[in-house]
């Protein structure tokens, strides 16, 4: 929410974010990523650039959910950069990502990556980036949760807590 609270070059609001990230109402599940993911002590030894932040931000290791974006296609994405940086460089990097990885983006939504730049960096960092992506690979996570639920439901695990309160078993 930094782009709502702090001034920036390319600011956005929640309505714009929702409009840009949700192409259809039922496709509203996001994957979130962050860069740099480093320990607090090692940050002073590492000089970050916009290209390096961009590369890290789109990397599956920096995603906050256990789904590999390379197993699906991006419908839309939003990149929020924080710190002193050029909006031109940010835009160039976003175009480079789309051109190099065009097979990972749906072709029927043109310009599906939106970028926002906020001038104020997070505490303790010179620059950082946050990624919000709407990808079809999120189905991996839903499939895994569904399989785990089905396995537990077959064994009637934890159902006694609900039936004890008067809730009927399905």
From TrEMBL:
GO terms for cellular component: cytoplasm; microtubule. GO terms for molecular function: GTP binding; GTPase activity; structural constituent of cytoskeleton. It is found in: Cytoplasm. Transmembrane segments: none annotated. It comes from the Eukaryota. GO terms for biological process: microtubule-based process. Residues 10-147 form the Tubulin/FtsZ 2-layer sandwich domain. Keywords: Cytoplasm, GTP-binding, Microtubule, Nucleotide-binding. Belongs to the tubulin family. This is Beta-tubulin. It comes from Angelica sinensis. The lineage of its organism: Eukaryota, Viridiplantae, Streptophyta, Embryophyta, Tracheophyta.
